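note to self — DONT lose this again. spent like an hour looking for the file last time. sequence + predicted structure for the chain T wanted, 828 res
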Amino acid sequence: MMRLAVRTLRFRKGGFIATFVAVVFGTAIVMACGGLMETGIRSNVSPERLAAAPIVVTGKQSHLRPGAEDATALPERVGVPTDLVSKISSVEGVSDAIGDLTFPASILGSSGLTVAEGHNWSSAALAPYKLTSGRAPTAGQVVSTTAGTKVGDRVTYVVDGSPETFRVSGIAKGPAGHAFFSDHEARQLAGNPARFADVGVLLAPGTDVDAVKDRIKAIDGGITVSTGIDRGLAEHPGTETQRVALISIAGSFGGIAAMTMMFVVASTLALSAQHREREFALLRGIGTTPGQVRRMILGESMLVSIPAVLVGVVPGVFLGRFLFDQLGSHGVASPVVEFSQGVIPFAAGAGAAILAAIGAALIAARKSAKIKPVEALVEASLQRKWFGWIRLLFGLLFLGGGLALLIVTAAVMTGPLAGATAGPSVLCWAIGVALLGPFWTKAVLAIWRWPVQLLTRVNGRLAIRNVTARSVAMSAAVMPVMLAVGISTANLYMQTTQMDAASEAFTRDLKADTVLVSEAGMAPALVDQVRTVPGVASASAFVRSTGVIDEPRNAPFDEDGAPLLGVDAQGKDGTAPVQLTSGSLTDLTGSTVALPDYVAGKMDRRVGSDITMTLGDGTSVKLRVVATFAAERGYESIILPAKLVAAHTTDGLTKQILVRSAPGADVQPALAKVAAAHPGVQVADRDTLVAANAEDLQTQAWVNYMLVGMLIAYTAVSVVNTLVSTTLRRRREFALQRLTGSTRMQVLRMLTTESTLVTLAGITLGTLVALACLLPFSAAVSASAIPTGPLWIFLVIIGAAAVLTFGSTLVPATAALRHSPPQPTHAD
């Protein structure tokens, strides 16, 4: 049978090319996702500034809440207490332990601010940096690594929002973007001199690194000890959070891509087998056993899929690198991480593709191998059977899964969490509808046939009779269109709805109309200066971070932690984006907190009660509740004093100041003058603040747009494969129509009407699938069950579906009708 399978390939090029293309692109997508997964798991970052230290000690960048199963990643640099350095130095085998103070020190030049980091000079030995000229810094001096700088130059650095000028005492050779101050001055400039950013450990010659690593771990459970390639993570503490995000994206999208690939490959092979029912009937009629038919179909799929997998590796490598670069440039993945795509992603992509081909081949062969020869000949002439009981069972199971996820999304989930169940529900609905495609196709065509017939007349009646007689086969053309429309519409409008709901929740109580922003941070005294500007009714520092509520333990936040907003103490007419229900923000100083009503209710806390929190840098604080406020469900944030939040961030800076103007006052010109006196400070409007609040959502939306776009493109391959194959199979039918008097244009008009019906059926079913996901999702994330977003997105989706459908039908049909049909001959 393998010999027969090889010979068959020459005469079934169309179907095998379709399968080949589907497997190639499926392999590439799954392999690319595998590369992202491997990159996230490895997170290899080559050490630069700490390269001379065999061991690097950092703070533990996660916190396990009491009673929780999963730890929460801490977004701020935790650091190492300074008193641990002496303990590390005393460990056997350690020759020296050098603490590194790291703080923002942007360079102020003629072209503006250049982001840089400041360090204590003693930590320069960890790179190692070597002086090429000059000497070590003392008070008021700096060792520079900036190209073009000379000894004796005076350079202005912006530290903690204030500019200060230093004289260059030396030039060091090493990684650029760093400035070294004297140890005493670095402790004054650092935001938290009680903690080192990290500690580099130097070892005595011949010392066993792993043994020393174990001894240092035993000193304190709140530290992380890194060796080898892991030392690079200490230089980029945000990499750990991005690592989790990258693994999550790769895992979720890779799973969806693998399922989509299996569906596309299975539908392509099933369609190819369906088109060969007469051939299989003849084989069964001449005595071929069911096992031989199965082996032949399985052999054909292997002969096509194995070369396709090998070809798919090439675009898979480039696609994985492209996706990683895009994620890095948009802040989702750390650009300093080395992209890794080894044997495991290749095995995942190849294995998924081959398993999909084997499974699809076995499913496709099942029907053709088991039916009796006479029944096969009848079935081959016109397929009437809708589906078998196995397909019915799985179709109902997927529809049941979609219904269960719909109920959970609408009744249980709130806010951003609703996407966790709404996203998978799209696939459940789509696959369930596809498995029961003939039923849904016939139901939808029964609705559309009458208006189409009225508009198209004779050609419409002929097309409708064709579609009615071939409704089972027609479902194979409708389902890919449904899949493309349903998945793309649901995923894109989920993002637009989520972003609109988040913006609405933030802006509903936002009283600020102007905001001062600075990437280099602002001096603490600037807030008081802004308050004295004529026309300013209220001003407050505004700082963001993430924390964990430890006590009470029933806090309604998951392992991602609780969003923290830091504001200054203020009256009821202040700029804080909250609507108070009890207490007052005038007491929001020191160790205090304001809680959303829902959070306070779940924890049974009221004004005067206490809670215990772990802030973004791992510091545990006990806070007294001074106020509660109304908040949109799912978008709750914890309000803390701005100074408290800023002191426990990585850079310790305030980067935004909220300003509310008095009625009728125009304060922007006066604020612009104030900002001009502070390097890097800019005045922006309310929209900038709203955009900054939705920055994470915008990044997530962009990632989903890109990944969904890939799935849409891959699904489009299925649409083209299916429709082109189906159209070319009907060449005998077209020739018969030509012989009975139909012109080429009449046949094309009939196919245009059929394509219209296919497009309308696919768009209708796809829209219903999308609405089954979007309606409960919208109800969970916003006050309305109607999804929000621009109408043009849906118009583009259905327009693309129509173009694909009409193009994939009319282009091959035009080619098939180019030649006149053969004329019958009559014997004399």
